[in-house]
C-alpha cells in the first residue's frame, strides 16, 4: 500500500492490486475510509464513515495535490491509467 501523501490526519494511498482500475486514491483517518477517482475529475466513489463536510475538505486536498497524486499512481502502476 504505497502512501502517496500524508496531510493533517489523512493518509492518502493506493493498493498495488488496484492498478488495473482507473486512477484513484484511498483516504484514511482512524477507522474512517473513502475512495476517490482521480480521472477525469476528482469524484467520490466510496465512503465509510466520513461526514459530508469532511469529505468536501478531503476533496479540496486531493484537488490541490491532483498532479502529484496522478504522477505517483502512474509511477507505481506503470503509467497506464484506465478511463472511469
Write the layout of secondary structure elements.
Blueprint: E1 3-7, E2 10-13, E3 24-29, E4 32-37, E5 43-48, H1 52-64, H2 66-77
Q: What's the pLDDT, averaged over the residues?
A: 92
Structure class? alpha+beta
- Adjacency order of strands in the biggest sheet: 1-2-3-4-5
User: Kindly, what is the distance between the CA atoms of the first and last residues, rounded to a whole number of angstroms?
Assistant: 21 Å
Report the strand count. 5
DSSP strand content: 25-35%
Helix segment tally: 2
Helix and strand succession?
EEEEEHH
Anisotropy-based shape: globular
Spans with pLDDT under 50 lasting ≥5 residues? none
| Fraction in helix | 25-40%
Radius of gyration: 12 Å
Major pleated sheet = 5 strands, antiparallel
Describe this structure in words.
This protein is of the alpha+beta class. The chain is built from 2 helices and 5 strands, in the order E-E-E-E-E-H-H. A 5-stranded antiparallel sheet has the order 1-2-3-4-5, covered by helices on one side. The protein is globular, with a radius of gyration of 12 Å. The protein starts with a strand and ends in a 7-residue tail after the last helix.
Amino acid at each position: 500500500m504505497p502512501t502517496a501523501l500524508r496531510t493533517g490526519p489523512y493518509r492518502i494511498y493506493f493498493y498495488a492490486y488496484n492498478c488495473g482500475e482507473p486512477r484513484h486514491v484511498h483516504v484514511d483517518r482512524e477507522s474512517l475510509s473513502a475512495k476517490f477517482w482521480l480521472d477525469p475529475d476528482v469524484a467520490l466513489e466510496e465512503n465509510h464513515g466520513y461526514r459530508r463536510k469532511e469529505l468536501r475538505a478531503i476533496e479540496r486536498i486531493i484537488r490541490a495535490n491532483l498532479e502529484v497524486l496522478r504522477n505517483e499512481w502512474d509511477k507505481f502502476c506503470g503509467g497506464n491509467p484506465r478511463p472511469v
